[in-house]
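Quick log. Single chain, no ligands specified.
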Amino acid sequence: MIALPQTENFKATLTCDELAMRLRYDPASQVTNILHQLTASSTPINKADYLYNGVGNRTSLTDRRGSQTFGYDSLDRLTSASHPLPGTPQSFAYDAVGNRTTAGNTTNAGNQLTADATRSYQYDDNGNLTRKTLLATGNYTQYTYDAENRLTKVEDFVAGNSTPAFTSTYRYDGLGRRIEKVANGQTKRYIYDGEDILLEYDGSNVLQARYTHGPGIGEPIAVTKGADTFFYHQDGLGSVTDLTDSAGVTTKSYAYDSYGNVLESPGTPDQLYSYTGREFDTESGLYYLRARYYDPTTGRFLQEDPIGFAGGDINVYRYVYNNPSTYFDPNGLGPTGAAGGAAIGTAVGAVAGGAFLGGVGAAGGTLALPGGGTIGGAAAGLNAGAALGAIAGAAIGAAIGSTVEDLLLQMSSVGNVGDTEIEADWAKAQSDARLRNCPISDRCSWLEDQAKAGKYSPERIKRQAKKWGCRGSRFSKGGRPR
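-> predicted structure:
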């Protein structure tokens, strides 16, 4: 987290070789300006300027597309929102407990949305939305849940046809994390570090993407697909606004309305994260907010808050007190104050972590994937029974700042014992790089630089190079770079 002094126009600038991010705050520590730009040319990638009312609600946002304005009622609920993209002004009114009354919305005594101007809605006895029907055609979407009220299936039906035109399914692990989704016959499987997705595989267990995250919730830093790495840029809500490649060129951009409907998303690559840094399922139009799913078209969750009124709201379906311009909900358990800048690319911490140690141990020598099979290559040869006990402590320390493949490779040989000081310095170098939102350097290149600088003895360099599997051609027999 960034510690913010209570001074007007405080500036924080995070830079690296190609990119810089500048943050400005007002005396209340509310972010007033976020600027992402190329360092060499000062060319802006994107910016966000914010204004606030006296109680801390955001009243305007100005970015490269133009200005958005937000209006509120006496209960701080969003009543109006404009957007520079055509056809997107919004207005809202609510009843006493926060249910929308505009657009023909009708709710029952349990605060369940039963109808709006275009659709009707049905629920099960646990309060989960089970059917959404388009009034004009009778076409409907059916939602299925497991015993823990987790969404497991979404099916789209044409009126009068009992065979779904489209089906998507979802699976979860024992911690409630979504580990697999199958949409239109395409399977995606996920490996986690804590609550963050690290690796994405297809149905044949072929790696499709690797994700790097910051220390907080909803802080994607980078995604690597094949040989290409792309970097995330976020606004004051943590919403992804742009992706840039390693040269700082913008390759994909996003625009949203006030409740998170995607207005446009031109460019590549396709990736998981968008509004408030959460996963958007294009197949269903829903956001996966961990504990439950959110529908931006209604501004409501499909399920009740699993912690009930302990979430802080008497209405267990509405999203962030109906104030999405100021708050976000990363876990589906209750609103959190606007990201401000602490959740905007402040990349510090481990990429791997203890979750993978547990995963390897439980798999008995291989890293089991959610749909069956294992990660091949170095991971397939793990002798976990002996290796875990011998190197777990060293592996955890070395894992900080490493990729998952690095961690698995480190654990594959009991005899490869590294230099703890070198590994700690490498971890710090990675943390510093992430704090500046910079690309992650190759550790063997970093070790070569340390050897050239004479920071460590040749013997220590040689031992660490062997531990990390660095090419022998980089170093002479004495541990000095050639």
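Residues 95-337 form one domain.
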